[in-house]
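Notes from hallway chat w/ T.B., transcribed later so I don't forget. T.B. wanted the structure written out for a chain they're using in a teaching module, and asked if we could keep both sequence and structure tokens in one place. Agreed to drop them here.
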Amino acid sequence: MTRPSRLVRVLSSSLAAGTLLSTVACSDDGGTDGPRVSGVTASRVAEVRQTPSPTATLSTDGARTALITEADIEDDWTQVKDTEAENWHDSLLIGTVDVSDFLTAKAQASDCQRLLDSLFDDDLLGRPSGASELRGFEQGDSRLLYQVASYDRTDPQDSLNWMATLPEKCDQFTVTDGNEKRTVQVIEISLPGVGDARQGLRVTVQGSAGGDDATLTLDVAAVRVGDDAITVTAGGLDGDENDSAEQAVRQGTQRLEDVLAGKSPAASPT
């Protein structure tokens, strides 16, 4: 399937010779500090909306201020130009979901297709209805994309609830792209207990890049703060970036809450 008017980042064949990663484990054993909750549980609890008060309308400047920095995610991440980050699109995410993999074919296949398309297009929670800013970082062959956006004319909670159903609906399925077939797995990952609601997924795509076996592993997280939200997509052919994703979630949520409360975000940790 060819997606019109989008630049596709073709993964280099030199990144892998043979299978890079085995199928990701079905649990997350992160040991970071702070409360941790199941995304499914958080989504169900958050259906009774608890919007922090006071809040302000998120402006473009505010969204920009709420973006994380290299110091927030530590390790060896390097910030890239915004125009470069806007054009990150993994070719392994392109394809048509095989309907025959599903018991309730049309409904489940549609959800799985929506997941792949939204990851490719960087609109996991739908198109923002208000201010939106993003920032990208790279480390080796891994990428981390961070977005802050306002959904004041839509409901980000609906998208979080949808995400919570995907580990069951899309636990494993096949994607076809021309003559190539890829196996996709989706599991839930836990996130720090921040914001009003949150949901985390790990998406693993096994296929080929440049004729070599390759596995793309993405940790995907979304956190709602009122009608605004942050989204994080981190990973690549090097494997999952769970620790960095968690740091981005924790630091980014705090920055967004500070901006909405009219405060200057605290300095990034050193």
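Follow-up for T.B.: The chain has a mean pLDDT of 81. Might be a good example for the class.
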